[in-house]
């Protein structure tokens, strides 16, 4: 069965250290406000290098981050304060709010969604 991309967002409330476990190579992006007028007021910037499969320890300054994955992922907060959320990937280009629950949608294309767990 085809895997659906999972969009994971992190809201780091204070400088934090986390262990992120992924099964595929992912790019962690930081969401920053855009200067001047913009459609949604935010822009994604690359944060660090590509993360290889396995466990990666990350030191994250306060801010909002996100990544997409086709595999299961796990987040363990070592120190600090992090809120996290996930949902099936949207094509509209907006960044998910980790504190909001996803709105129900109509028919979804067939496929299996990866799981995201937090310790």
Please tell me the total number of domains.
1
Major sheet details: 5 strands, antiparallel
Question: Mean pLDDT across all residues, rounded?
Answer: 82
Write out the strand line-up for the largest beta sheet, numbering strands in chain order.
4-3-6-1-8
| Radius of gyration, CA atoms, in whole angstroms | 14 Å
Helix amount: under 10%
Question: How large is the count of helical segments?
Answer: 0
How are helices and strands ordered from N to C? EEEEEEEEE
Between the first and last Cα atoms, what is the distance in angstroms? 28 Å
Number of strands: 9
**What fraction strand?**
over 45%
Structural class: mainly beta
Low-confidence segments: 100-104
Q: Per the principal axes of the C-alpha atoms, what is the gross shape?
A: globular
What would your notes on this structure say?
By secondary structure, the protein is mainly beta. The chain has one domain. It has a five-stranded antiparallel beta sheet, with no helix packed on it. A hairpin with an 8-residue loop joins strand 3 and strand 4. About 4% of the residues have low confidence.
Summarize the SSE layout with pairings.
Blueprint: E1 6-12, E2 16-22, E3 29-33, E4 42-46, E5 54-60, E6 63-69, E7 73-79, E8 82-88, E9 116-118
Parallel strand pairs: 7-9
Antiparallel strand pairs: 1-6, 1-8, 2-5, 2-7, 3-4, 3-6
């Amino acid at each position: 069965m085809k895997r659906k991309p999972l969009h994971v967002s992190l809201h780091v409330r204070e400088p934090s250290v986390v262990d992120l476990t992924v099964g595929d190579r992912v790019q962690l992006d930081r969401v920053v406000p855009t200067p001047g007028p913009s459609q949604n007021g935010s822009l994604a910037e690359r944060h660090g290098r590509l993360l290889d499969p396995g466990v990666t320890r990350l030191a994250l300054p306060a801010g909002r981050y996100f990544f997409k994955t086709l595999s299961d992922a796990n987040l363990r907060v070592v120190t600090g304060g992090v809120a996290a959320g996930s949902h099936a990937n949207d094509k509209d280009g907006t960044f998910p709010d980790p504190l909001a629950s996803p709105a129900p949608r109509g028919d979804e294309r067939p496929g299996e969604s990866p799981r995201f767990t937090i310790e």
